[in-house]
């Protein structure tokens, strides 16, 4: 998105939630506004500001600044520097970080009252942002990292009283068709009560805001879905993505997120030695942890399928004192000797996902169906094996498999409360191997999915280029925000 002229730039304040999956795409959107000359301030905590600064492009740095507010570590009983959901693997610490994020309300309000912007763009996890915008008499746009498909699906469930309430149990599970939705979507069970409550709160926050921003492109969600949402809610939606494609240079793509242990050149060098579409990329995001038993089943299935792979295994934080042997006890005996270097790579920790997915050798992606991962895979034209774990991921799976037909389900049915709890059900090695063979094989189904995924990848690229839907949405949103600013009476 280049060449946009700015006359009297907008002053915009962004408030991302303290988790990588929320911060990175909203920071990308902030960077997009800044690179076109608008005055952008991203408000976050000190340790999160450090990681975001690393990925700030030179084009945007002149117009974007980071304002830090101290994280209330003592109030929530956390050590200094633990300020992101991605820095923990236990539920209690995650809850403390969430509570700390909610306590940022006061310092952020004090900052904005002294220097009010033309518009607040906040994560929908912060319900108080709407009140703050109302107090300052400016619009608030909300962002949450979900696809519009998923948001509309949840809206339909809420309207038809199909989310869990206090009166029904978490064990309700029977397959049902989602009513009053533009597409035929079947769910096998309802989300847990704690998630249902969170989703309701988040969508109430969205509906109280001026409009919704989506890190996606309209062609993936579909025009019917957009019309359905705007008609049923009376709220405008702005598709501005995929933000991952705005990061054009190799360096920017590599630095989008945390630093990885594996040298990026080593990773790309290995991929360069593989055939086109031959490699399966496996990654479950930054806050999903599988048990040793489940990892063992995965390893057996991957080896049995015979396809080259890159497998990202998150490090178990808080277990740094374990010996290497204890850390690797989930690997079948001799697995690395038989597979590593020639057949595959195991990356421990973080990986340059956007760059890996865009490599021609990658022909499939086994994913937890996080919102960012799905958009990044679709943008790269890569079909998926879907393995949802918690949150919105089971809804996202339906977008990829039932609606768009660019993925196969591995058969995960256990809807967990978060990404760090121990699962009760194992996905068997047979189910995993079957899904890998379906996606990575040479059958008609695999070929059709690959072609369809590539078509969506091309549409994603077109969307952010001049004349594309996301590009035009960006221009129209700028005009709308300027109109609202100019309507506001001056003191």
From TrEMBL:
InterPro entries for the chain: UDP_glucos_trans, UDP_glycos_trans_CS
Entry-linked Gene3D superfamilies: Glycogen Phosphorylase B
Keyword field: Glycosyltransferase, Transferase
GO molecular function: UDP-glucosyltransferase activity
EC number(s) stated in the UniProt entry for this protein: 2.4.1.-
Protein family according to the UniProt entry: Belongs to the UDP-glycosyltransferase family.
PANTHER family on file: GLYCOSYLTRANSFERASE, SCOPOLETIN GLUCOSYLTRANSFERASE-LIKE
Protein name per UniProt: Glycosyltransferase
């Amino acid at each position: 998105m280049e060449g946009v002229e700015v006359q009297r730039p907008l002053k915009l304040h962004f408030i991302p939630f303290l988790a990588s999956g929320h911060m990175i795409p909203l920071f990308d959107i902030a960077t997009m506004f800044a690179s076109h000359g608008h005055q952008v301030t991203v408000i976050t905590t000190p340790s999160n500001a450090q990681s975001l600064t690393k990925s700030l492009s030179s084009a945007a740095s002149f117009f974007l600044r980071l304002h830090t507010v101290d994280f209330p570590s003592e109030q929530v009983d956390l050590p200094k520097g633990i300020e992101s959901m991605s820095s923990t693997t236990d539920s209690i610490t995650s809850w403390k970080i969430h509570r700390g994020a909610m306590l940022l309300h006061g310092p952020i309000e004090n900052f904005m009252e002294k220097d009010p912007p033309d518009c607040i763009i906040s994560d929908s996890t912060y319900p108080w942002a709407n009140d703050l915008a109302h107090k300052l008499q400016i619009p608030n746009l909300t962002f949450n990292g979900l696809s519009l498909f998923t948001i509309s699906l949840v809206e339909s469930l809420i309207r038809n009283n199909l989310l869990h309430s206090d009166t029904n149990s978490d064990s309700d599970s029977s397959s049902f068709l989602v009513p009053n939705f533009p597409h035929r979507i079947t769910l096998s069970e309802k989300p847990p009560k704690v998630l249902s409550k969170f989703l309701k709160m988040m969508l109430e926050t969205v509906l109280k805001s001026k409009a919704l921003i989506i890190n996606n492109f309209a062609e993936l969600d579909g025009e019917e879905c957009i019309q359905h949402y705007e008609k049923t809610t009376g709220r405008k939606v702005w598709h501005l993505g995929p933000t991952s494609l705005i990061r054009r240079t190799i360096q920017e793509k590599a630095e989008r997120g945390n630093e990885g242990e594996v040298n990026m050149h080593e990773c790309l060098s290995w991929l360069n030695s593989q055939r086109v579409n031959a490699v399966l990329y496996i990654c479950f995001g930054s806050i999903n942890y599988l048990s040793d038993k489940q990892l063992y089943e995965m390893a057996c299935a991957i080896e049995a399928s015979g396809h080259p792979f890159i497998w990202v295994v998150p490090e178990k934080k808080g277990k740094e004192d374990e010996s290497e042997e204890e850390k690797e006890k989930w690997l079948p005996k001799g697995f690395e000797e038989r597979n590593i270097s020639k057949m595959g790579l195991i990356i421990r920790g973080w990986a340059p996902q956007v760059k890996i997915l865009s490599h021609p050798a990658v022909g499939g992606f086994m994913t937890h169906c996080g919102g960012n991962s799905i958009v990044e895979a679709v943008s790269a034209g890569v079909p998926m094996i879907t393995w949802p774990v918690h949150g919105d991921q089971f809804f996202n799976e339906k977008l990829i498999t039932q609606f768009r037909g660019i993925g196969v389900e591995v058969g995960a049915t256990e809807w967990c409360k978060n990404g760090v709890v121990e699962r009760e059900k194992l996905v068997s090695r047979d189910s995993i191997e079957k899904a890998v063979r379906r996606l990575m094989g040479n059958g008609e189904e695999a070929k059709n999915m690959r072609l369809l995924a590539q078509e969506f990848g091309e549409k994603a690229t077109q969307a952010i280029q001049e004349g594309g839907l996301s590009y035009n949405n960006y221009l129209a949103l700028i005009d709308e925000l300027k109109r609202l600013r100019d309507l506001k009476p001056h003191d």
